[in-house]
Amino acid sequence: MRWLVLALVVVAALGLAAFVFVQRSGGFSARAEPSMIEHVAARAMRHMAIPSRARDARNPIPFSPEAWSDARAHFADHCASCHGNDGRGQTEMGRALYPKAPDMQLADTQALSDGEIYWIIENGVRLTGMPAWGDGSDNDVDTWKLVHFIRHLSHMTGDQLKEMESLNPKTASELEEERQDREFLEGTDHPTSPAPATATHHHKEPS
Known about the structure:
The protein is mostly helical. The chain is built from 11 helices and no strands. The protein has helices at 2-24, 36-49, 52-55, 65-78, 80-83, 92-96, 107-110, 114-123, 141-151, 158-165, 172-186. The termini are far apart.
């Protein structure tokens, strides 16, 4: 009974400390930066969550210009809205996540093994904005190509980034703006004419 009471006291103390910490750090707002404790704990939990056989997996897809091109197109269409075409996470959505989308050119990502990067893309990361992609298998070709893409982020050229911009998903308003610009350049746009006035008919009242 004494040990049970002690355990309850410890749990209550930790709960109170967590409550005070959350209140002083701005509540549960996603605008806040995760603390160093959260950062370290999240990295450790993610590492433990990845099976050792997955961490040790090697990329079975040889790197080639074709594989890199396919990966750029895939990333631009599926991933860039959060991570940005350059993988730095400096997008409106990426900056609004908690934790924020990482700069994948830095060591926190580049130090991961190919298998860890593959597993994260395939399975996502709980309690973050990273969803699970792929089919959950160990040999999704598109995901292995994305691993190559992430490894070569720092090698991207301006032309490649511009090519990716043309493949990014567009909103309806952006598509409409592009259509209007295209029609203007082609000289096919026509100002909208006012609708003709509706004729008013006067009927003679019968006498």
